């Protein structure tokens, strides 16, 4: 089983995202109005300094290796969210049939 300080980030507890700020109407020089998303996103990404070898790359086998059986469905819904930025539905309510297939 995977252990270490990153475990909570992978498997929980998950907290809800902060509510998005309401869109702001901006009046530009051409007298057109457009919606601007005013959400502030704070994030940090730290990549491994060297690749991890001897780990499965197939999502199904990686899920077994990490003992996270929901990993493939989490990945599918993540990919769905990346291509459908305007959805107003919880990702857990998205049918897996609507999500993109994972690479093998």
UniProtKB/TrEMBL annotation:
It comes from the Eukaryota. This is Uncharacterized protein.
